[in-house]
């Protein structure tokens, strides 16, 4: 990043320029070595220790992988290593002071130079603990950055950032969260600062990124820190209520049990039964061990509940287990979803019992208000999506609204809407998947 | 918070069934949430030619597709994309016998969809639905050759002028705070929308209008045409290169900056600078982020324009009222291929003594090297004296024999004695030459 010494740039509207203090000290972090040497950086050692002590991570990090994103001089990397962590430290340019301390400590911290957005492609694996300290506001895409951090974390990420209301955030806690956008030098006279969130905005973005639980550790001055957990708190030892019965899960975007980790937004829709009244904050969904929060819940006419959840980020490809509990209950039965599983070509598709979705009369469907067909299909692969399936009435594609689970008979129920402008009379009804078509059968449109 | 919830048109939309209205050639009229008159007024506001024949146009988030079909009616070759397949779009498409290429994809899949670039991009009513607004504008910018029309929900369409000098802000909607709809993520102010369009990499950004909860912005990739009367004092360009160092740029980096060092015979402001990168097809403009005086020269910094393909491109700069100064070449995503590197002679950079250099306040050496890759530069050529790495501060153009001059700084604390000197690039090393350090 080029220096910005004497420029025609406008004065920093937000002040907060510590570059001269930093230049005088030469180091950002302070260090105290076993041989008694002290490096007096911009940040006092006492403050670094206080910060570290606030992180809800275990004293003993042996066997834990730790990622320190934007390590700078590296105090937090070396401190985690001192606690036994197997540490990878990242920065966007090599920092000679980091390398100097690394040599002095004979450290085994793995030091990588990467652009932040290259992280997901670097195959570093996942980390129990991720430090994301003082980096967020330097990034052009803060929510994307948090998604990437979430995807790399298996247990907890520590997110510390510049915030614009560290002292006053409680006064407007109920307002819509906002963030400032810095096009050039508005923050601290540096042009690589991009955004300044409020405390509430920082927490909201951490939640939106996909963490199960987000806790504010502290806020003060220009800074706030959040502990972001990927797992739910442990199941209560003495559950106060029975678990829900999980009936069905579907992709919220399109019927079926297939999910893509490449989509920017994937939602799960879960149908469950319980005797009690439910609010979103009571629900604890777990997918492949990772928690995800309910963003919406409502009761259906038939008494069952339906809740929407964001798909947790960076799931591995394959069949992933999914289960649900309440804050005060144990987990439900398990269902599963297909993540990034390629479609297998069916050998043969057989349709049984095409009927009107309302009257259940076989072999016919009414195009009156909201008319739809229900039928039973066998031969579909276990991972199934409306995107891979065509339901045709005389070659007119129908909109699929429901794809059920495979029943004991080997069939699954499918519902599809019938457009109101379809000609009345006999039509050929067919289903197609991956180039395989079912035998046509006659359906009367009434 | 209630004010944002009230911006909820879902019931009206559900009652109408359609978002766009249509007047079809067969006389059919479809009465959507937005009136045909409103749609026509909006379209008329876009600074695009009436005749779009020969132009490629991309409509991102086409919904029922009125803007796609209207652009097609004006002669454009249109690609329309949406994140889900809308039966209403397909219905109109069939009725109009349209040739609009309709694609269903996630917004962020766009850069890898192999669609090519478009003269005109419509990005209407989508920005506030995406989780990463600035990233989305970078993607839109990279797909645009000429102009993108960005229309978005904004939080202050009627009052933005009252706080135009404040830091731009944007609201973040975690759930359904905006209009009771999930899938709305951000609400920028008018100033924030303009700032993000500029930061995304467009050369020029103009507000076309604001009101009724939204703002419309014209984002240009190219500079305005040269004025007919040109001032004669054009900038004397000394270098145009990567602000980090060297001539190589990586489009994989999230932030790459171009630096231009020049002399001027008049006071300089950022606003008067016009940088341009020519990729062989287009001349993409970049606006200066800031400009700094350095002794008798100026150094201006620009974002690298998005969407450049891999290869050698030319960069040049002018003032708003002059022609362009000297052109420089930059390498974008060009792999650094090692060759057989031959080091010929080393001299003291000041005394010009062969094989012997003096340590001093400003000591440096010059050497001649053949076999370097074409995109060798100060950042990727390494010079070492014994075990010490020297700072390379100049890599010249090849002479007639293919040798390039390289200068490297000799630090004042260098130990004296006879040392081995060598050059390295892309993992390949040169022969060593003995160098007497005195």
Mean pLDDT of chain B equals 94
Span of the ends, CA to CA of chain A: 70 Å
According to DSSP, the number of beta strands of chain A is 30
- Morphology of chain A: elongated
Poorly predicted regions of chain A: 1-12
CATH class of the largest domain in chain A: Alpha Beta
CATH superfamily grouping of the largest domain in chain A: Vaccinia Virus protein VP39
Kindly name the structural category of chain B. Answer: mainly beta
What's the story with the biggest beta sheet of chain B? 9 strands, mixed
End-to-end distance of chain B: 74 Å
Count every helix of chain B, treating DSSP H or I runs of 4 or more residues as helices: 7
Major β-sheet strand ordering of chain A: 5-4-3-6-7-11-10
Could you give the topology of this structure?
The complex is a heterodimer of chains A (446) and B (438).
Chain A: H1 19-25, E1 31-32, E2 38-39, H2 45-54, E3 65-69, H3 75-82, E4 86-91, H4 96-104, E5 110-113, E6 127-133, H5 142-152, E7 153-162, E8 178-181, E9 195-197, H6 199-209, E10 213-220, E11 223-229, E12 245-251, E13 258-259, E14 267-273, E15 283-287, E16 290-292, E17 294-299, E18 305-310, E19 318-326, E20 335-339, E21 350-356, E22 364-365, E23 372-378, E24 389-393, E25 396-397, E26 399-406, E27 411-417, E28 425-433, E29 436-437, E30 441-445
Parallel strand pairs in A: 3-4, 3-6, 4-5, 6-7, 13-20, 22-30
Antiparallel strand pairs in A: 1-2, 7-11, 8-9, 10-11, 12-14, 14-18, 15-16, 15-19, 17-18, 19-20, 21-23, 23-27, 24-25, 24-28, 26-27, 28-29, 28-30
Chain B: H1 2-5, H2 10-16, E1 22-23, E2 29-30, H3 36-45, E3 56-60, H4 66-73, E4 77-82, H5 87-95, E5 101-104, E6 118-124, H6 133-143, E7 144-153, E8 169-172, E9 186-188, H7 190-200, E10 204-211, E11 214-220, E12 236-242, E13 248-249, E14 257-263, E15 273-278, E16 283-286, E17 288-294, E18 297-303, E19 311-319, E20 328-332, E21 342-348, E22 356-357, E23 364-370, E24 381-385, E25 388-398, E26 404-409, E27 417-425, E28 428-429, E29 433-437
Parallel strand pairs in B: 3-4, 3-6, 4-5, 6-7, 13-20, 22-29
Antiparallel strand pairs in B: 1-2, 7-11, 8-9, 10-11, 12-14, 14-18, 15-16, 15-19, 17-18, 19-20, 21-23, 23-26, 24-25, 24-27, 25-26, 27-28, 27-29
Helix pairs in contact in B: 6-7
């Amino acid at each position: 990043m080029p220096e910005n010494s004497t420029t025609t740039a406008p004065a920093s509207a937000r002040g907060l320029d510590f570059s001269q203090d930093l230049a005088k000290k030469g180091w950002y972090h302070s260090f105290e070595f076993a041989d008694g040497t002290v490096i007096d950086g911009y940040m006092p050692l006492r403050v670094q220790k206080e910060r570290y002590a606030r992180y809800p991570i275990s004293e003993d990090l042996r066997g834990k992988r730790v990622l320190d994103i934007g390590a700078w001089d590296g105090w937090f990397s070396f401190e985690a290593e001192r606690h036994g962590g197997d540490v990878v430290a990242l920065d966007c340019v090599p920092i000679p002071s980091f390398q100097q301390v690394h040599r002095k400590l004979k450290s085994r911290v793995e030091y990588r130079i990467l652009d932040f957005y290259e992280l997901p492609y670097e195959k570093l694996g996942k980390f129990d603990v991720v430090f994301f300290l003082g980096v967020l506001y330097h990034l052009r895409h803060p929510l994307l950055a948090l998604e990437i951090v979430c995807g790399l974390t298996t247990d907890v990420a520590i997110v510390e950032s510049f915030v614009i209301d560290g002292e006053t955030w409680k006064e407007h806690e109920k307002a819509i969260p906002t963030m400032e956008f810095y096009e050039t030098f508005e923050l601290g006279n540096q042009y690589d600062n991009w955004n300044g969130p409020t405390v509430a905005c920082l927490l909201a973005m951490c939640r939106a990124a996909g963490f199960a639980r987000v806790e504010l550790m502290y806020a003060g001055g220009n800074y706030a820190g959040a502990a972001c957990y990927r797992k739910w708190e442990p199941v209560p030892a003495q559950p106060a209520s029975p678990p829900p019965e999980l009936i069905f899960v579907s992709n919220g975007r399109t019927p079926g049990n297939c999910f893509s980790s490449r989509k920017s937004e994937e939602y799960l829709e879960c149908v469950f039964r319980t005797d009690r009244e439910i609010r979103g904050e009571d629900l604890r969904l777990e997918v492949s061990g990772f928690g995800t929060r309910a963003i919406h819940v409502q009761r259906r006419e038939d008494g069952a509940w339906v809740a929407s959840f964001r798909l947790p980020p960076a799931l591995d490809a394959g069949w992933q287990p999914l289960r649900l509990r309440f804050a005060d209950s144990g987990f439900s039965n398990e269902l599963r979803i297909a993540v990034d599983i390629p479609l297998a070509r069916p050998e043969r598709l057989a349709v049984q019992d095409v009927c009107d979705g309302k009257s259940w009369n076989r072999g016919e469907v009414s195009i009156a208000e909201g008319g739809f067909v229900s039928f039973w299909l066998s031969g579909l692969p276990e991972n199934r999506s409306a995107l891979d399936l065509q339901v045709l009435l005389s070659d007119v594609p129908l909109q699929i609204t429901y794809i059920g689970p495979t029943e004991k008979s080997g069939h699954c129920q499918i519902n599809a809407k019938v457009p109101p402008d379809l000609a009345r009379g006999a039509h050929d009804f067919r289903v197609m998947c991956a180039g395989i078509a079912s035998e046509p059968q006659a359906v009367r449109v009434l | 918070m209630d004010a944002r919830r009230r911006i909820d048109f879902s019931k009206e939309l559900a009652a109408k069934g359609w978002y766009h209205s249509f007047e079809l050639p067969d006389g059919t009229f479809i009465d959507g949430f937005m009136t045909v008159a409103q749609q026509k007024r909006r379209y008329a506001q876009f600074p695009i030619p009436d005749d779009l024949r020969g132009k490629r146009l991309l409509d991102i988030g086409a919904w029922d597709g009125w803007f796609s079909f209207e652009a097609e009616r004006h002669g454009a070759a249109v690609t329309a994309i949406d994140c889900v397949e809308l039966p209403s779009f397909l219905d109109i498409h069939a009725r109009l016998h349209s040739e609009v290429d309709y694609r269903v994809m996630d917004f962020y899949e766009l850069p890898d969809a192999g669609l090519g670039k478009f003269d005109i991009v419509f990005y209407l009513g989508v920005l506030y639905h995406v989780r990463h607004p600035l990233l989305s504008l970078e993607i839109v910018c990279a797909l645009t050759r000429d102009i993108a029309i960005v229309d978005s929900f904004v939080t202050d369409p009627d009052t933005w002028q009252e706080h135009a000098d404040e830091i731009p802000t944007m609201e973040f909607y975690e759930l359904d705070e905006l209009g009771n709809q999930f899938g709305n993520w951000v609400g920028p102010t008018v100033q924030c929308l303009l700032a993000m369009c500029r930061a995304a990499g467009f050369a020029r950004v103009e507000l076309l209008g604001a009101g009724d909860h939204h703002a419309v912005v014209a984002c240009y990739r190219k500079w305005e045409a040269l004025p007919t009367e040109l001032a004669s004092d054009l900038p004397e360009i000394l270098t145009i290169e990567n602000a980090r160092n060297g001539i190589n740029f990586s489009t994989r980096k999230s932030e790459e900056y171009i630096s231009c060092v020049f002399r001027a015979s008049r006071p300089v402001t950022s606003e008067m600078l016009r940088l341009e990168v020519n990729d062989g097809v287009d001349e993409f403009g970049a606006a200066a982020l800031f400009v700094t005086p350095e002794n008798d020269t100026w150094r201006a910094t620009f974002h690298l324009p998005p969407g450049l393909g891999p290869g050698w491109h030319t960069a040049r700069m002018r003032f708003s009222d002059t022609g362009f100064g000297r052109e420089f070449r930059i390498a974008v995503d060009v792999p650094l291929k090692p060759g057989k590197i031959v080091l010929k002679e080393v001299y003291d950079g000041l005394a010009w003594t062969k094989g012997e250099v003096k340590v001093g306040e400003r000591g440096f050496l010059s050497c001649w090297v053949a076999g370097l890759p074409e995109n060798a530069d100060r950042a990727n050529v390494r010079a070492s004296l014994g075990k010490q790495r020297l700072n390379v501060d100049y890599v010249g153009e090849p002479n007639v024999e293919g040798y390039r001059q390289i200068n490297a700084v000799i630090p004042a604390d260098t130990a004296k004695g006879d040392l081995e000197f060598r050059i390295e690039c892309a993992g390949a090393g040169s022969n060593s030459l003995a160098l007497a350090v005195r």
